[in-house]
Amino acid sequence: MIENPTDLDIWTEAIAAKVAGKGEFTKDNWDGLLGHCMAVTDLPCAAFAPELIAAYPNAKVILTNRDIDSWYRSVSETTLQHMSARPTWFGAIFRTDSWRHRTMSNALFDLMFASDFPKNGKAAFRQHYDQVRHLMADRPQDLLEYEVKQGWAPLCEFLQKPIPGQDFPRVNDIEEFKVWIGSIGRYRTVKTMKTLAPMLFSLGVLCVAVFWALKRLGQKALDGQSMYSTFQ
Question: What's the rounded Cα separation, in Å, for the pair 169 and 148?
Fold first, then answer.
């Protein structure tokens, strides 16, 4: 979604279809959104486990187990703080990437946690795991319950891939996430300014032109009054 911010609008449509029944989100829609991907992970995909498992019945599913308290603390200190900010009037007017991301993220958190992560977060966590296990009950060979601390071996065996000749990555902790979010914010700010620059320049030129036009009209009016006074 960072590389393709227009996907944010499509995810928002998918959420609306699931929550409010606004339109349909079919296999063709999923292909259009994710057809170029070899795999999907994390949010917002995790919120659509039933739909994605139904749309891609031959796909393998990896359920990453982790301590619920650690997960809750991590989300509270990172994702929740980032997603909870409401869209600004500036972003709403100019439909910036940041505004689109927050619009989608807020709708997603409403869907997953009933608008109250502190109260419903852990229950939603347990429900998600139970749901995936139930959905994959008739395809146990395509489900891997995995913990990151297990490293490459079970993951590569499940995917039938050779073990890479490098250490298993240990990334995406709280501090790294905050740094990443900061870099994304700076990137979006620069992109927004580049988008607005031509508009602001044109507006500036227009303001200058209007100023000089009004000044000339005012001067002509003064000159006219001066001539009238002379003839009097």
Answer: 10
